[in-house]
């Protein structure tokens, strides 16, 4: 079972909460948002307002980033730094929208 964290539980994020539950071999362990969720979070999923809860959990193998575009660089950078410094190799990202190609340049 691949355990994921969802970053953002707004307009798109709430769709991921429901969709992931129907995908075999995937499990949503965390939902992170600064605000309280607008939908009920299933009991088997941990809601957190601390992104580090996801990034410090060794069971998490990927994240879905479903946040407003203006915050994607900052959050993606934090996720990448967590991977680099912890040496985690099994980590993937799914973005709700296309990411500005300059995002990579700013990270360098």
Report what the structure shows.
The chain has 4 helices and 5 strands. With 108 residues, it is α/β, with parallel strands linked by helices. It has a 5-stranded parallel β-sheet, with helices on both faces. The model is unreliable at 98-108 (pLDDT under 50).
The strands making up the biggest β-sheet line up spatially as 3-2-1-4-5
- The topology string of helices and strands comes to EHEEHEHEH
- Secondary-structure-based class equals alpha/beta
Distance between the termini: 33 Å
What is the strand and helix layout of this fold?
Elements: E1 2-7, H1 13-20, E2 26-32, E3 46-48, H2 51-55, E4 60-65, H3 69-86, E5 92-95, H4 102-107
Structural descriptors:
five-stranded parallel beta sheet, 108 residues, Rossmann fold, disordered C terminus, alpha/beta
Task: Summarize, please.
The protein has 108 residues and is of the alpha/beta class. Helix content is 34%, strand content 24%.
């Amino acid at each position: 079972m691949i355990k994921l964290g969802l970053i953002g539980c707004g307009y798109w994020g709430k769709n991921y909460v429901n969709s992931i539950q129907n995908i075999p071999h995937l499990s949503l362990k965390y939902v992170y948002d600064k605000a309280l969720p607008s939908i009920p979070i299933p009991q088997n999923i941990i809601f957190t307002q601390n992104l580090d809860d996801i990034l410090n959990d060794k069971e998490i193998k990927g994240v879905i980033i479903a946040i407003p575009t203006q915050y994607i660089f900052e959050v993606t950078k934090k996720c990448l730094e967590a991977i680099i410094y912890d040496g985690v190799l099994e980590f993937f990202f799914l973005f709700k929208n296309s990411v500005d190609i300059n995002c990579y340049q700013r990270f360098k």
